[in-house]
Amino acid sequence: MSAQAAETEKQGRPTAKSLQAAREAGAFALHDRTATEAVQLLTELARGCPSTSWIAGTSLTGKIFSRRAIGDVIGMDALLAGSGTPGGRGEEAFGGVRVTGRWANVSGCEDAEWAGLAVLIDGTLSWALIPTRDLRVEHTWSAAGMRGTGSHTLVAEDVLVPVGRVAPLDFTRLAGDMVLFGLTALAPVVGATLGALDLITAMFASDRKPYMSAYASMGESPAARTWRAEATSLARQAERTMLALAAAGPGDHGLDMSGAARDCRVAMDLMLDLHGASGFAESNPLQRYWRDVAVASRHPHINAFLAANRL
């Protein structure tokens, strides 16, 4: 999948090969996996392509929303894009509800078969499942990182959602899932950091020498070994925290989760220090991992400021 990551970013959505590899790995059927199994798979995907992993994670979140509100009414491995922000309104109509609205930042919306969208129906927060063929995509996603997620805006214009695909959304039924929702954002960040660490490990195995030094290799340099060890320690610490939270289950883990995301950012900075300015060349995948981590780690689920602000 790493071979597809650059093209995924260039075209602003996962390549067909990336989507197929993710589907074959079971990444779009994670709602029947344990939290630990889900984050491990998302992490491994992100090691190759963070954007594809991110889309798989948001699909998992949307399927859980759908299962809690409506039940299992779509295919096991169908890709679902979604938004829990009520960007639209629904009006009761014969046979169902007519929905009109706009939902921004819907990751994977160009490739998903289904969209799960929060709507207000007579003041009641509800969840609607709509085939994406019935929606319009506005290309609004332009960000420094996670460019391959295609997190554009979905638009519904008087779309009839039949009975059986729309229901009130009761957040008390989602209380036990909130940690997993955060972990679906954290796992791609951890995986991207580990993917960057793979590049640094390969650099140490190459004949590259530290710039402006007498050392014959990166491994000969005590400073280089220290930088690498610190980056490795932080990346692995973030991974351990993520897996511990997955095993722990429900609870207030916002600070732990955002702390792991910050560990990833610090690890990325150390790796770029170690690599030097050439790590920012557009041809170097290290800068892509760095940008993806910088953007994804500020998601509301794992944002350090927001976690502290909720105390």
TrEMBL record:
Keywords for the protein's UniProt record, in alphabetical order: Membrane, Oxidoreductase, Transmembrane, Transmembrane helix
Acyl-CoA dehydrogenase C-terminal domain: residues covered: 186-303
Xref: Gene3D superfamilies: Butyryl-CoA Dehydrogenase, subunit A, domain 2, Butyryl-CoA Dehydrogenase, subunit A, domain 3
A Pfam family: Acyl-CoA_dh_2
Membrane spanning residue stretches: 178-205
Keyword Signal: no
Name of the molecule in the record: Acyl-CoA dehydrogenase
Species assigned in the record: Paractinoplanes lichenicola
